[in-house]
Design brief:
With 220 residues, the protein is α/β, with parallel strands linked by helices. Helix content is 33%, strand content 19%. The chain contains eight helices and ten strands. Strand 2, helix 2 and strand 3 form a beta-alpha-beta unit. The longest helix is centred in the first third of the chain and has 12 residues. The N and C termini lie far apart (58 Å). This is Thioredoxin domain-containing protein. It holds the Pfam family Thioredoxin_6. It comes from Talaromyces atroroseus.
């Protein structure tokens, strides 16, 4: 297999659902300098953790085409689709790759729960009964998840399948979607009167995990 694969719609549909994440470059097809940088990384540092491809078709959905080079990462276990549009150099791409080689926002299930428990990190959870809403909120929070890659696990929770979690967390179905941070012994609930945005969740994280805030467990 070539280190960098030229993708079309059919190849993309197959490769974005494989076991390794797929990193896709878009931009100017004649930008050989950027392609050379990506190819060198695909042969070395990226080879163990990513499939790497290029896609020049600007009509395909989920691929954001610009005149400047950018990359999009597809991971079948990730609820979001991370994108990088910063400096297209070795340092910038490797820094981004280190953040997204594992899912930024996972679906909450037994497999992810085991992984979360092993990490010992707090879990930031988006609760919703609607799949499209969970996906949209995961995308909204991707920048926060990248910032706190080493500090917090993020997950989406199907509130219909996991309805039994709602009451212990102080959540009501008519207040969904909701965001909650759970640590080993504490639960912090984002105000249902506020909109879930990157800025609001970042402020919530700072106030709860890094300041003195009364958790739900202590309020009962």
């Amino acid at each position: 297999m070539e280190p960098v694969i030229e993708l079309d719609e059919q190849r993309l549909a197959v490769m974005k659902n494989l076991s390794l994440p797929l990193m896709v470059m878009t931009g100017d097809q004649n930008d050989y300098a950027s392609l050379d940088i990506l190819t060198a990384l695909a042969k070395a540092e990226l080879s163990q953790n990513f499939f790497v491809g290029v896609m020049w078709d600007p009509s395909f959905p989920n691929i954001h085409h610009k005149t400047t080079p950018s990359v999009t990462v597809f991971n079948s276990l990730d609820e979001t689709t991370p994108r990088y549009g910063g400096r297209f150099d070795r340092e910038g791409l490797l820094g981004f790759a280190s953040l997204v080689s594992q899912p930024l926002v996972r679906q909450f299930d037994m497999s992810s729960l085991v992984s979360f428990m092993k990490s010992g990190l707090p879990i930031g959870m988006v609760y919703s009964t609607k799949e499209d809403e969970r996906k949209a909120l995961a995308d909204v929070l991707s920048v926060v998840a990248m910032k706190h890659r080493e500090d917090i696990n993020f997950a989406t929770v199907d509130a219909t399948k996991s309805e039994f979690f709602l009451e212990p967390l102080g959540l009501q179905v008519d207040q969904l979607p909701a965001f909650v941070i759970q640590t080993d012994d504490r639960v912090f609930k984002f105000s249902p009167d506020m909109t879930i945005t990157p800025e609001a969740i970042e402020d919530f994280i700072q106030r709860t995990l890094y300041s003195q805030t009364t958790p739900i467990a202590a309020q009962k």
